[in-house]
Structure formats: C-alpha cells, structure tokens
Amino acid sequence: MSTAPVGLPKMGVDPEKVKAPKPVPGGWYELKLTGFKPKWDKSKTGILLNAQLEIVNNTAENNGKKCYMGLSNKFDRVYADFAHGFGFPLNPNGTLPGDFVPDPADPSNVEKAQYKGPLLGKIMKVELVVTSYQGNERNEVNQIMCKIDQCAVKFPEIKHLTRIVNTK
C-alpha cells in the first residue's frame, strides 16, 4: 500500500519514453542542422563536433526525428562532404563556415563552445542506414548529396564519399 499523500502527481516517467527511439528505414532523407555538441575525443587528441540534425520534409511520423553525425577532425574527408551538403565550401583553413564561439566564463572548455554560422537551420540530403550500437538499432549518415553546382569542376581535388559508415 502506498504511503504517498493523496493528490501527488506520478513521480516517474512513461516507460515507453525511456526506450531507444526506433530508427527510420534506410534511404534518402532531408536533414536540418539544429546545432553541434562539441567535445574532446576519448584520447583528448581530437575534437568531435557531434552535429545535431532532424528529419524534415518527410512523413508526419518521421518529421522531427533526431539524427546525429559525429564529425571528427581525424576523419578529414567528411568535413567537405558535410559543408558541401549544405551548399557551402570549407573555409580555406579547413574549418566549417561560421565560428565556434567560446563561453566567456570558461573559454578553454570545448564542450561549452556555441556554433554561430550559416549552416544552422540549413537542410542537406543524406542517405541514412540502420546500424546497431550497444544492442540498439540507430540511423547513421552513409553519404551526403553535394549541393555545390559543378563541384567536380570547382573542387577537383575533393572526391565525395559514397560510404561513410565503417570507413572511419
């Protein structure tokens, strides 16, 4: 028998909401960039940008579903694919267009840096595949469609990846 006072709200959560989200079927989707969550990699020798994306222009069931894409500065080639997917070239120094602005109260903390730039809110078309991680199925970006007109002519040294998953 419960000893909680009468009238208290439920002190828990909906058990269905703690389950891992079901991935969408593999295929081509439009994803909108909503932000980044940068952090150091495990070895503290590289930075992961962890792009936060959501499905748009799809079915009501799929719109708004979250997708994540790890951008590691140790996997250089995917940076060009990512920027080109939104229609932007990389900056000449190899960074994404825009800036990561440090937190004034903690300027050396990579995890508190906020992205300010033209990619926010932009949409790219990607191929999502379903993979398994720690016993749960999830979506991963397998390739990104380039939005730069005549990319091969303007950037002949860049060859876009056709398989990102399992090439890291």
User: What is the averaged pLDDT score?
Assistant: 91
Based on DSSP secondary structure assignment, what is the total number of beta strands?
9
Could you name the ranges where pLDDT drops below 50 across 5 or more consecutive residues? none
Q: Main β-sheet: number of strands, strand sense, barrel status? A: 5 strands, antiparallel
First-last Cα distance: 55 Å
The assigned structural class equals mainly beta
Number of domains: 1
Taking all Cα atoms into account, the compactness measure Rg is 19 Å
Secondary-structure element order, as H and E?
EEEEEHEEEEH
The proportion of residues in beta strands is 25-35%
Q: Which strands sit side by side, in order, in the main sheet?
A: 5-4-1-8-9
Number of helices: 2
Shape: globular
Helix content: under 10%
Explain this structure.
With 168 residues, this protein is mainly beta. The chain has one domain. 8% of the residues lie in helices and 30% in strands. The strands form three sheets. Strands 5-4-1-8-9 form a five-stranded antiparallel sheet. A two-stranded antiparallel ribbon has the order 2-3. The mean pLDDT is 91.
Write out key terms for the chains shown.
168 residues, mainly beta, two-stranded antiparallel sheet, 2 helices, 8% helix
Per-chain topology:
Blueprint: E1 27-36, E2 39-40, E3 47-48, E4 51-56, E5 66-69, H1 77-85, E6 99-101, E7 114-116, E8 123-133, E9 136-144, H2 151-154
Antiparallel strand pairs: 1-4, 1-8, 2-3, 4-5, 6-7, 8-9
